[in-house]
Amino acid sequence: MKPDDEELLVQLNAELNILDAQFDDISPPSLLVMEELIAAETLRRRRKSRNELLLFLCLALIVLSIILSALGSAPVFYWVLQAVFPLAALGSLGVSRIRLRREDTEE
């Protein structure tokens, strides 16, 4: 080994010993603390999930009631909207594909 390599090896070992000394002072949490943390996290996730489900159901109910009221009060308008939105989506997709093909042929 070269002298530079030995010096580098000694320096790396010293740095690793310092790092090991810092992590030796850390003690793992007790089992009781971990169980409390897991229970609290589980409860928080359940509440969050329940709130998200409630929000989803409320919004779905609102959207469904709007659609049903539109269907009941103006069925022709409802069916026109049902036809226009998919056609607009397909039309915009077709236009974007045509533009991409034109750009590819120009290059």
TrEMBL record:
Keywords from the named record: Membrane, Transmembrane, Transmembrane helix
Annotated InterPro entries: DUF5345 (IPR035238)
Short name of any one Pfam family annotated for the protein: DUF5345
UniProt keyword annotation of Transmembrane present: yes
Transmembrane regions listed in the UniProt entry: 53-71, 77-95
Superkingdom per UniProt: Bacteria
Name listed for the protein in its UniProt record: DUF3040 domain-containing protein
Taxonomic path: Bacteria, Bacillati, Bacillota, Bacilli, Bacillales
